[in-house]
Automatic annotation (TrEMBL):
Keyword Phosphoprotein: no
Similarity comment: family membership: Belongs to the major facilitator superfamily. Sugar transporter (TC 2.A.1.1) family.
Organism: Bathycoccus prasinos
Name the record gives this protein: Sugar transporter
Source domain of life: Eukaryota
Keywords: Membrane, Sugar transport, Transmembrane, Transmembrane helix, Transport
GO cellular component: membrane
Coiled coil feature spans: none
Topological type in the membrane: Multi-pass membrane protein
Subcellular location: Membrane
Major facilitator superfamily (MFS) profile domain sequence ranges: 7-547
Amino acid sequence: MNAVSTVTLVASLGGFLFGADIVLVALALPYMSRGGSDPVEGINTSLNQSLVVGVAKLMAVVGVFFGLTVANSYGRITALWSAAIGYMLGPATLSVAENMGEIMVGRVLIGVSIGMSAVVVPMYVAEMSSNVDRGKNVATYELLLACGTCFAAASDALLRPEWRKMMLVVIPFAVLLFLLSMFLLVESPRYLLEQDRKEDAKEVLKRLLLNKKVKDDDDEQFNSSLMRSYNVGERGGFSSSRNSHSSSNKGVSVSSYESYAMDQSISVQERKDAELERLAEIELNQIVRTLDQQNLGGGGGRGQSEEGNNNNMFEHAKRIVAKIKSLRSNANAFEATKILIALAAFNQLSGSTAVINYAPRLLAGGQGSQFDSVAHSTSFAISITITKLLGVAVGVYFVDCHSDDDEREEERTEEPPEGEEENKKFYGGRVSLLFYGGIAASLSLFFAAFGVVGHEYLVLIGLCLFTFFFSCSWAPVFWVLVSESFENEHKSAAITVCVASLFFFGAVADFYFLPFIEWNEGVALTFAGAIQLWGAIFAKRNLKETSGKSLKTISESYGLRST
């Protein structure tokens, strides 16, 4: 595994814990409230159960702001292992809770950690990735989130109805995230430059660049050079494989070839090192220019130390608030922020996570249903979480797909011929996934709504289809868009607003969805399908394809749209 892949997988453990913690509690609710051998006091009503599920996302709004403050003050790595601490303490508190208040304490701790990891992981992974693989790397966060939901369903199958043990199964993964963050991950070059650690930032960039195409190209050139040199040796009489010279002459031939190959190897390695140094210096200078512009614009940056301690969290919190207020002054950032807030609303109000959280209730609520919400909760959860995992895997593959013309778009001076842009976008990318995936997801919800008055298995099929199509489109693409739609000058403030909006609308959905489906399940699913369809149309009309483009080009495209 290369350095970028290692960074991506370790950081994305935060997504795994997000998915596992959210779903575990939802699956455990029937065992907490059914009045069995180990019930929790005060959790029997649907209102309180909605509160238990939704409070985590509500506190995640606070976690987003707190996580970004820690990331800017002490670094991305510190923010990651800090989130891991909450992922350890929250489930531990839930496992010993005896009443509603103690349950809420555990959910608050988990919610803050969810918000921290949700904002830090995509930002950190995007800063460590190139334009070519940024989408896949950031979408890995959502892929591991889906793995977390599958793990939660499997834990329910093995441990039910021992819900206290279910709460503990995620703690080893939180410990793993804590240890790997502290001892394996390297700090972001951007943060290192903010701390005036230029040489450390260059070393990190060189480690990341070792995995890029230039290394493979040099290896190929090196091998070709050796072949050419060997052929020249044959024609010059060095090789004994095609003549009848003595064995001593043959030995001279082989040693001459090896000596020449060694000289060539040293020469190629020197060229590799020089090229690596040059590319690292170029990327370093680009980050420095961005930070200098940010500093001149009053956003902080490398000049922060003149105002006091660079690691002062209170100062960084004030700067984030100031940056949020300044978003209106930048047409690119403000337009992108508005669009992504709308996408966050469509993402969550369509019931994307609520469907998974309340899947047993959805299936048991149909007219004439023979399903038992508790007895069948495991099979329902496993079916839906597996389709979520498969869907995210498909989305991760297609999210970075684009035509070769996209790679040269920044060099174009003329508008492409009419119809060309639309044709190339059928191949994949962000916009196509949002549009076609959104339409398929909305149709799946309508099908599930029809199943309410038909047969309960139709509801299950519809929910699985919705989960698959949503997971291969809206689920990963939102995080990719958040990570790439803003230049560094406005990135921290915009990410804070967008991710906090996602969790806010997610909390709203968790609060209203359970009472809604208990009132009329068919109407609830139809309403969610209509929101998802509206979101697909909105994305098609308001977004431009960003796959393979630089952050600067993406940001400027929003400004062009606003004018």
